[in-house]
Structure formats: C-alpha cells, structure tokens
Amino acid sequence: MPEQQPPYEDSAIAPTGAGGATDLAMSEGETLEKPLGDSPSEGGPAAKPRSLWSDAWRDLRRNPVFIVSSLVILFLVVISLWPSLIASGNPLSCDLAKAQQGSQPGHPFGFNGQGCDVYTRVVYGARTSVTVGVCATLGVGILGSLFGSLAGFFGGLPDSLLSRLTDIFFGIPVVLGGLVLLSVVDSTTVWPVVGFMVLLGWPQISRIARGSVITAKQNDYVQAARALGASNTRMLLRHIAPNAIAPVIVVATIALGTYISLEATLSYLGAGLKPPTVSWGIDISSASPYIRNAPHMMLWPAGALAVTVLAFIMLGDAVRDALDPKLR
Amino acid sequence: MGRYVIRRLLQMIPVFFGTTLLIFLMVNVMGDPVAGLCGDRQCDPATAAQLRKEFGLDKPVWQQYLTYMGNVFTGDFGTAFNGQEVTELMADAFPVTIRLTLVAIFFEIVIGITLGVVTGLRRGRPVDTGVLVLTLVVIAVPTFVTGLLVQLLLGIKWGWIDPSVSSSAPLDELIVPGLVLASVSLAYVTRLTRTSIAENLRADYVRTAKAKGLPRGRVIRRHLLRNSLIPVVTFIGTDIGALMGGAIVTERIFNIHGVGYQLYQGILRQNTQTVVGFVTVLVIVFLLANLLVDLLYAVLDPRIRYA
Q: Is any Cβ of chain A less than 8 angstroms from the Cβ of B227?
C-alpha cells in the first residue's frame, strides 16, 4: 500500500501546530462553501441536502467498473453461501484413476493430481477466500479504527504509545510473520488465518483512521459540540466518526482483496490452511509441481483467485474515486 | 537536520526492540526447537534436557531474549542447530537477496516511473486506460501465481530462461525473478506516479514554466517530475523492506538460495536462531530505509526543513 503520510508528529510541517492563522483561513473557507453545498441539486428534491454519501452513491451507480465488480462479488458471495447451486459434486470425492486428466464432458476443468474434479473444487474454494477476506477486513477495520480514532482523538501520550505500537507491527514482513506463526497451527478452519491477518493488519487502518480523526477533530462543529458540553463518546460517535470513516472504508475495501491474495500465498507456502480444507491456495500449491504436464490443474484455481482479488480491488478503486473527488 | 536524525534514531530504538521481541515470542510459539533436532523420532528426554541447557532454552523467555540481544550487539547471531554460524548463513544469503532486491527496485524505478509519467501526461487516452487496466491485473494476480506462470511460459514452454536459478545467482539469471518480485510494487509505482503527475500538471508553477517558454521536456523533467516524485520515493523506500521479506515467495519459485530460502528452511526445521537472526536484520533494514525516506523528503522538497 502506498504510504503518503509525511511524518507529522516529528516535523515542522505538522498541520496541528500551524497556529491560529490557518484555522481562521479554514473556517472562512468553510462558511463560504456552505451555501454552495446546500444549493438544491438539479434533479433531486430540493429539501434534501446532498451528503458525501449520496453524492458518492450517485457516482457509483453510473460507474461501469463498480457495476461489474459488484456483480462479480455478488456472484461470489452467492456461490460461497450455496456452492451446490452450480456445482453438484463433492469437492472431496476423488478418483485416483482420473488424476491429472484434462477437460471432459461433465468435468469442464478436468481433474487434479488426486483425481478430484477441479471445477467443483474451484467453486467450493470461493467460500474459503470470501470468508477469509470479509472476516479479516471486518476484524482489521474494527480494531484499526478503534485504536486509530482513540489515538487521534486523545493525542498526547496514548497517541505516542499507539503510534509506536503500530510501528512495531509494521516492522514485521507480513508473509514472514504468517509463515512463522501459522506453520505450527494445523488450521483446517479459517480462523487462525483470519486472526493472524487481524493481528498484523490493524496498524494499516489505525494509521489512516488516526489521520482522518485528527483532521475531523479540528472542524468547527466538533469545537461547537465540545463547547456545548458534549461528552467525548458523543463527540467521537456522533460528530467525528461519520466524517472520518470514508478513508477507512476505501482502504479496507482494497485491503480485502489483498487479504484473499495473502491467504492463498500463505497456503501456497504451506503455512495457511491445510487440506482437507478446500482453498485455491492449497490447490495451486499442490498443482505447481505438475505445471509442466497438467497446467490446467493450476490455471483454473489461479484464474478464479485472480478474478476475485481483481473484483475487490476494482470495487475499492471505484469507491475511492467516488469518495475522494480530489483524484478525479 | 542533525537533531532530527538523532531524534528519529532514538525513536527507532523502542520500535526495534518491540519488533524483535514480537518475532522472538512468535518463534517461541512456533514450537519446541529441540524436537526438530532428533529428526522424525521423539527425542530422548535426557538428551533433550541436555540440548535445552546447552542452547539456554531452559530459561524464561525474557531472559533468553535479553541474552540473545546482548549477543547480537557483539555481532554474534548464534549458531544454527546444524552447527553452522548464523552469520555465515547470512553472508551467503544476503548478497543474493540484496542483488534480487536491487534488480526489483531498478525495474520499479525505470518501468514504473516511465509508465507513470507517460500515462499521467495522457490521462484518459487509450494508453492511459490500457496501462491502468494492466496494473490492476498485475496487482490482482498474487505474486506466486505470476511467478509460476512466468516460469511455465518463459522457462518451460519457450525456454528463454532457466526455470531455476543456480546457487551463485549471477545478475543475469535474476532479471526475470526480479521482475516478478517487483511486479506488484511496479504497478503501485505506476499508479502513484500517474496520479501525482496528473495532479501537479495543473499546478501554477508548471503553467509559469510553460509561459516562460521553456521546452516541454525541461518543464517535465525539472519542474513536474521532481515535485511529483516525492510520494513515489516514499513508497519505494518503504518497499525495500517489503521486497526483502516478500522475496521468500519468489525465491521459493525460482529456487534462489537467498534470505527467503534460508528463512523457509529455518521455519521448516524449527531453527529458531536462524529465523530470529534473519528477521532481526530485515527489521533493521526496514527501519533504516524508512529513516532514509524521511530524510530524502527534505532533499526533494525544499519546503520541508527538519528543525
């Protein structure tokens, strides 16, 4: 992930330390913009002011990238919930006599090294990947935004401590950490893998959340809420969080794709999931020695993996374009 | 500047100890290192106890960590369980991985920035869309799949390269693995450069430079590029650590005997000394690269001055 954050806490370019002049300029800019933002949109009802979210949703509905990727994701979610809809076989029933055979009627993708039907295994593998991706993203998102917003909101010592803690977790190469931690766990369920990703993934979201909470904290309406005697919890939940969550959502969506890819990579290295779990990573890994003679055994799961990751990354891209108008 | 460097170095100390402690704990969770010594059989309890004592494994974890760190600072990374010095393994492995990483960074800089500049200057044209789609595909296909496909096509089907790299790993054999290692980051560099160029293209100073009548090439190189490269440099800097750690996959595919290979062997054989030693060095590299990036900010952007 590209890290564009300059080292705020250390340098003279910190936005917080800039003093009264910029604050004044900012608040003036906002009062000027307000009437513009409230002007009724061309088509919509004049009574309802357009928010960032309704604006983003309008953009997304028109974006072909968003439509295509969400259709793919919808399809993936459906087949991970009910794989038997499109695959009638059992992914674990194999016939060694058919090992490594190519495409046949009724078995469009051929058979793998153990003689299992590649098509059935590819369909059933979607569940693993989608579960890992969604659960890891939820865990990372919740943990990361909790820590990040606490650090950004309270500043001072908690911030320094949490920032150093994120640095520590950032220092560990992800694949390496996974290899070390997961090589002992005989994970036939996805939970150890998800847990590991949450453990090493939260700093990424935490940094983003911290940054955007710091920005949102300086807004006038937050100061007003504070002046009116709002509690910290209320300010965080009612005023800051809704305005700071957009970057978190963007990064989390893109990260979802990378978690799926990471699960496959770890399974390929033999440290992620273990058979008899059906996972694209495992299938690719067990097919790779036979790549010379039976490339189809690897290409189908690899293709499915690539399409899935691509769909999530494209979705994240489209969401970012919609939520961050600066890049347009 | 000097004070800033000292402050950053001081800040690195807790991070260094935290990360190495974390790795130390993780490796300890990894399982009983002595069990890996007796092959597939169960160890004789007396032998195991003897070995444990010999390697200091009977002491509590924090004490093991302190002893280990003390040794590291005198340049002693301990002995792998097969009797080879870990520093010896490092001397063999690191040059290979550093060469591989350098090849990867070279591709990132040359191909990534070129593509980024070309697309950033032609936003919305077919070239731009094409390259963007290509970068998305490269990002979406996991590195190990890219690597296996490249190996299948170039190495086996067409026979352009040797599917596995020889143990001395000369530079010319590392070109393709380096490209594979770089692929995902290369796509990020392209996208980052493109966004940055496109954003700065509308900046006042570019218009001024054009209005002065400077030739287009000079405007792009001296004014636009220099300002647009700041986020790219950051990314490449932080990527050094990720590349060296991520080389584990590429090295496995192309059978390169570098850091990733040694680490993989260490993990398989539950060789804690090797794993902790290599990871410690990787963490140091990562932290230094980050420091370097922050210092480069000031060189690239004269507006930033560190007090």
A: no
